[in-house]
Every structure is written in structure tokens, then in C-alpha cells.
Amino acid sequence: MAFVKDMLRMWAHSWKRFISIAMITLLGVAVLTGIYAGCRDAFRSTDRFFDAQGLHDVQVLSTAGLSNGDIAALRKVNGVAKVQAERSQEVTFDLDGRKSATMQEISTNGIDQPYLQEGRMPKKAGEIAVTRKFIRDSGKRIGSRLTVTPESASSDTSDTNDTNGADGTNETNGTDEAPSFPTKLTIVGVVLDPQNLSNPDGYSAMTSFRSTATTDYTFFAPSDGVTGTLYTSATLLVKGAAAESTFDESYENTVKQVTDRIDGTVKTDRQKARRQELLDAGNKKIADARAEADKKFADAQSQIDANRQQFNQQVDQIVSMQAGAAAAGAAANGANAGAAAAAGATTPQLDETTRETMRETIIAASPELTQAKQQLDQAQSQLNEQKASTEQTLKTKENELKTSIPQVRWYVQDRQSLGGFSALKSDLDSIQSLGNAFPIVFLLVAVMMSLTAMARMVEEDRSLIGTYVGLGYGRLAVASRYLLFALLACLIGGGLGLIAGFLGIPAFLLVVLQGMYVMPGLRLEYDWLYGSLGIALFVVGVLAATIYACVQEMRQTPAALMRPKAPRAGSRILLERIRPVWNRIGFLGKVTARNIFRFKSRLIMTVGGVAGCTALIVCGLAINDTVADLGIKQYRDIYQYDLMVVSDDSDASAMRTKVASDGRVTSSLDVRIESGDLTVAGSGDGDSGKAGSSGSESIQLVAVPEKHLSDLGEMVTLQPVSSGILGTSGVGKTGSLKLDDDGVIVAQSAASALGVKAGSKVRLTNGDGVQATAKVSAVNRNLIGSDVYVSETYYAKLFDSKDAKNTKNSKSSEDSEALTWNAMLAKLSGSDTSQTDYAESLEEDSSVMKAVSCAHMADSFKFDLMGAVVALIVALAGGLALVVLFTLANTNVSERVREMATLKVLGFFDREVHHYVNREMMILTVMGVILGLPLGRLVGGMLTMALNMPSLYFEVEVKPLSYVIAAVATMAFALLVQLFVNPVLDRIDPISSLKSVE
Hints:
By secondary structure, the chain is an alpha+beta fold. Helices cover 55% and strands 14% of the residues.
């Protein structure tokens, strides 16, 4: 019992060490669990939401649309739970200018169900549910009416113009029809699209840019009133996928098994079958056209023949009359009247030559007959020409049918192809990577501080330890005094850290996350396993340090332990050997130098602890500086143009006329902008339709006119980059990069995320959904957005093929020779404010779809999530620095109580004693700061390299002010600690402290 009481008294006496270990553990466990818990809560709530709304696991698209046969084939694939055939249609409407939307049929079997936020779901034809983004932009509300106009090029691939009525290349078969939706609409509900959780008022809405291939809004309509038997896409749910977390590798493996089956069997067979359907439909159309033409030609020929017969009868009658008259006249000149009478009663028999001569004479003598014969001959000639022309046309169609119908392509995509899904996953993964890295530093510092504190605690009690061992107590029992002390401190600190880690930090992060994404049903959850392991990790580290300290002392005999520890032998330090310097240092300065460098362990612990804390602060500030400069670097340095204007293809000419007439443009470059995807090409066939894998990135495809390739460098800073180390990259000379016809230039933001470099092969998907394998000629410096620049000639080589003539929104063969330049990059005159106002005014024009001011983007760009995480990390690092300095300062004082007492006996005043002790701590702190500043830059560079986010590249930037802030903050913490240490020094009693321990 006395042993226990003594142990409790010893614990109470060492309350400062207890608090230090508990605080370090609290901070470490909070960092370890907090960021992880916040991301995990977001992951789990999103996964539950996806499962509840039936977000598809796989989506199948086709360049020729999907038929009932395709849907039936997909249902037979092993592992497919449900299949939904989807119908959609792109429409336009007037909302302060021309806007576009996708009319989406609501699934009837629970796949991709919109989440109702207000009102009710549409049930009748003409009723729709809209997103909150549309409500915000339009000012409409539930009950408002809207009239839309279907776009001329339907969202379905088969809904194209029928040329000449006999070309089967643009029709799928005789029965399939493209989807058609009602045009008179009434808003009955506000919903959240499960495929896009972006908050319309958050970061993504401010910085996103939609090109011409993406509609502005999505309207959800019931099946009632929707017609058409051809499907835009097919969405699938995979068996067992709902039981896995959508963000885990196990889910990806489950879905991949099904996509591989589709790619391996169904895809190839159905592509061939679909093309055969197109061929059969084309042949049938040609045969029908020939039959119809033959019938028309036969009717026309019959009419001509009837008219010609009537004409011939009329001429023959005249010939007969003239022949009879001639015969009667000849008989009248004869001798006998009876013979004349007989001759008059009998028609003379004419030979064919004579009759034909008379016919021609009669026709020539009569203008009416001549005109009638010419009309009959002309009609016959025209009919013959038409018959020959039609037959030639049909034969040409027959010959061209197989070559004009492209191979049907299927594209099998998983959830990674959804921009909202991939952005959320990448954001959370990047933040979680920070949460995985920083606790390592906290754990190392905790072990170092625990070793320092417990080693001093054990050393103070060495005589007592020797007494207990001498009395027969086991070394383990004696060591348990310190092990239980450290364990209790870790458990209490860890418990408080779990509260902060699973409640405080996640609540803070989720508030920021909800400003970027809409996540219904979000709640905080506790992970018993991870929380327990988090505490156990710090318990093991601190106990290991305590065991090491105990072993170091208890390996001696009890007699040696009960005797005072021999003072450390004197030795020269390196500075003493530099005589010119050493001789000019005062007495107290020499004492300070010896105290600092003679005690190596204290030097390493103090400098290492301060350096670690300073590095954490610098690292946090480095990430903050990097993010803060993204907008300015991109929109003022890389983008040299001031304005980007985009229009619909049909309004491109009007848009350019409008901008030119305003007189604000000093120079401009016409380009074509489309949204698409960039996928790292696999080792297989470049035409493989597999998309949406982890190696995919949404891009902005910019096609540049062949005659103006050199002008691109005046609008965009072209600098080749190469991968570096520690977050750096090698940047080439400005202007050394040129766009040519040998490949595409890929933005650094996309290249970094996908591991693409110059010479790589990538698969590009343009705005029409056409895929092509392209060569990367260079990687251009780019921080925000994923631009891919391509020349007009190379674009035509990639996409202007037969595949492009039968795909979604594709141009007809007559128009495919020239691109429509639907966008303009322009430099403007005037201030930043006037440029921003001008861009806003352009968006009100009906011919302009989007106008982006670089000045506005540079000023408004921000990344709230990363800023919040950085602020959290800097705050925790500052707290750790304060605890570390407090622990080291108190340990330093407890080690040197007799020394301080001696100084007081020698006549040192309290202020002089303060200065004597604090000067050493300040010098050690300065040394730690000097070491921690470059270390923080090093760690910051390594962390930013791990932050691969969609359309963002973090070019590491640490401003001089950040170094100053980190250094000043650490020194300020050191000064603050002095305020706590000075009273301890004042309470040292010289008499009691100098009593012999023997």
C-alpha cells in the first residue's frame, strides 16, 4: 500500500509531465483520426446516398444508339442485377439568352433516381423536376411553366437527316425512333441529380466552365409523354456492388468483372449485330425507294404512252382523210362515173413509207401537232433521264452503303466517368493523404518528448528506484510506476483526442465540404477499430520510450542507483578550438555554449522537436501559398488573353460580329472548344471502347485554325514542363513550345494526374463522343483546368472520319470538311473591373453561351476545402510546438535545479537567472527554426505532389512571408513558454536544492 501511495504522490508531483504527454497524445490522435474521420463520414454518407438513389455502376453508350436487342443482351450478362434503357433529348430555351438542357426520362426500376428536395416528383406528361441550379439561375419556382425547343441534332445518334429519301446510313431501322419529349413543361419539383453532387453555390459553380458539348441543366420527366424506341444509353446495377463501398478497391474489382464480361462478349457481338441492322435498314430503304421509283416511272410511262397513242390516232385519221380525198380526185378525171363512185367508196391502200411521209408532212404543216409531238418527245426524254439517274443513284447508294456506315462503337463506363463523382473522390482522397502524412510527424515528436520527459522522471527517482530494488521489489514492479504514469497520460490524452478527432475536426471539415457538395444524410460516426488503433499507436510509442528510459537506469545495481549520478565529465566543444571567436565570448556566453553542445541528447531533442513543429507550420503555409497563387498564376501568367467567349455552333458568326462591333478587342484568336475526356491508352487496341477507368480526366479540347497556329502563343503562355522532385517541375523557356500537326499539347494538370509525358499515347474523346488515339507532342505548364490543344489538321485526322459521321451531334458529311469556330480568345482594353463588367454584359446576349473574364477568375478563385485543412493543420502544429517547448523547458529546469540554486547562492538575481536559462532555450529554438524551415519546404513539396485533383496542379510556392510567420510563431511560442518557466525558476530554494542527496 505504501508503494502505491508513494507512486500516486510521485504522479501528483509530476503533473506537468503528465499534461505534456497527454497533450501531445491528444494532438496526435486528433490529427490521426480527425481528417480520416471527416473524409470517412463523407465517403459513407455519399455511398449510402448512391445506394439509396440507385446510382448506376456501369453505363453503356453506343455511336448508333441502343435497341431493344442491345438491352436484352445486357440483361443476360452474368453479374448484372438490373438494366435500365434510358431515353434523353437535348433541348434549348430562352433564359437571358439561349440555354440548353437535357430532358432525362426518370427510371422506372430504381436506377439513377433523382433525390427530391422540394415539391413532388413529376407523374404526368409535361411535368418536370429541375435542379436547384436552374431555380437559382432562372428565378423560377414550383408551378412555373417553361417552353423548350428540341435541338436539330438530337441527343440520340440515329436522329439525323434523311438524305434523298433513299440513304439508309442515317436510319437505324424501319421501327426505331429517336426519343421525343413534351415541349410545354411545368415545374413540379426540385431535385438533386445523384450523378452530380456539386453545390451550385460552392467552389465548383464559381470556377467551372461548360463548353458547347455540355448542356447547362438537366430536366427530369416521367415516362408519360415520352416517345421513341431508340435509347440514348443503358445503365446497369451490378450484383454485390451495393454491399461494397463505392470508393473502395473491392467495389472497383466487383464492377470491373462485369465490364470485362461486357467488353469480352456482348460488346463485340452487339456491335456487329447493330451494324448489320443499319445495313439491312439501308438496303431495305434502297429497295423500297427503287420499288417506289419504278412504280412512279411505270405510271408516268403509261401516261406518256396513252397520250402518244391518242396523238397517233389523230394523225392517222388526218392521213386517211387526205389519202381518200386524193383518190377521189383522181377517179373524177376518169371516163366512167361508176368507176368514180366505186373509187370514192374504197379507201386507198398506202405503203408504210408513204404513210410515214404523209404523217411527217401533216405534223410539220400543223403548229399544234408539231408542239404536241415535241411535248411528248420531251416528256419521254425526261422520263428516261430520270429513270437512268435514279437507277444510277440507287446503284451508287448500294455500292457506298457498306463503306458509308461506320463500325458501331460501344463505350462501357463506370462511375469514374461521372465528373461529380470523380471530383468528390479525388478531393477527399487528397485531403485524406494529408491526414495520413501529418500524424507521422506528430508521433515522432511525441516519442521524442516522451523519451525526454520520462528519462528525466526516472533519473530524478534513481535513488528511490535503487531503494525499492534493494528492498526486494522487482524491476518490473518499479518500472510499472512510470509505465502506468505514461499509459494513463496516453489514455486520457487519447480519449480527448478521439472526441476532437471524431467530433470536432470532422464537424469542421464537413461544414466546408457541404459548401462544395450536397451530401444528404451526412452524419458523424465513430470508428471503434480505427480509434482504438490510433490510441494504441501512441501508447506503444510512448511506452516504448518509457521502457527504454527505465531499462537505461535499472540495468545498474541498487547500490549504484542509490548513489548520486556522477556528473558528466568535462570536455571541449568545437567552438573552443576556434580561438579568435572563443576568446571574444564572455564568461556566461562560454557557459551557455558548453551547456548547449555538451549535452547532446538535450540538443537533439530540443532542436529536433522545434524543427519538426516549425516544419509542420511551414508545410501548412506552403500548401496555403500554393493554393492561393493558383488563380493568379493561371489567369494572369499562363492565360495571356483577357476574355473567352463561347457560343453555340449556329450562333458562332453572330457572336464574333457582336464582339467585334463592341470595339473592346485589341487582338483575338478564333478557336473551337469542346468538352471531352483524356484516357491513358492501354497496351491493347487503340480503338478499345473501354473508358472511365482510373486513368481518365475531363478535358477542354481546344482546336486551333491551321493558319493561326503561331498565334496561340500570344494568347496562352506555352512552356514545356518535365517532372521534377519534391513538388518541383522543370519549366522550359517561354515560347519554345509550338503547336503542330504531329500531336496534341496536354496541360500539366492532366498530365501529372495521369502520368502522361511527351511521346505518350492517349485516347481523346471529343464533344461528339468520338474517340481517337493521339500522340502527345508536349506537356504545357498549366495549373487550373485540363486544356488539350490540337491543330485543325490533326483534329480532322483524329475525329473527321467515318466514325464521326454517325455519332451524337456529329456534322453531316457535307459539313465535316471545316470546323465551326465556336469560341474566341481575346485581349481587351480597359481595367480589370471594366473587363469583368463587359464579360457579364456579353452573357446577356442571345448569341453568347458563356463569357469568362480572366481578371474576374484570378480575383475570385479560391479553394475553401484546402484552405480549411491548412488552417487546421497550422493550428494543430502551433499547439504541438507550444507543448513541445513547454515540455523541453520544464525538463531543462528540472535537470538543472542544483545549478540554478548555485547561481542564486553566487548572487545572481532572478532576472539574471531567467536570462541565463532562457538564452539557451532561445538559441536551441533558433537552431530548430533554421533546420525546420527547409525541412518544411521539403515536406510541403512531397505532400503537394500527392495532391492529384481533377484539373488542378499544385506548383509548390512558399512565400518569404510564410517563412517569417513560421519562424516568428515558433519564437513567440518560445517566449510564451518563458512566462510559465520563469515562476518555476523563482521558486527554487537554494538551501534545500543544494542539500546533499546522501
